[in-house]
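Hello again, I could really use a second opinion on something today. Take your time with it, there's no hurry, and the full record follows here:

___
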Amino acid sequence: MARIAYLREQLALAARLAKAFLDRQTAEWLQASAAECRGELTVLTFKTAA
């Protein structure tokens, strides 16, 4: 459960930062990081529910 909370925090942080950055490369990197967190969060949430 701690990993799920951590991923949710990282996802929210990456999303906020991506909106704040004007540098396209940094914003894209943050969005990719958020997508990676979402994917792992989905897998962990599914495993926890099962």
About this structure: Residues 32 and 49 are 26 Å apart (CA to CA). The chain has a mean pLDDT of 81.
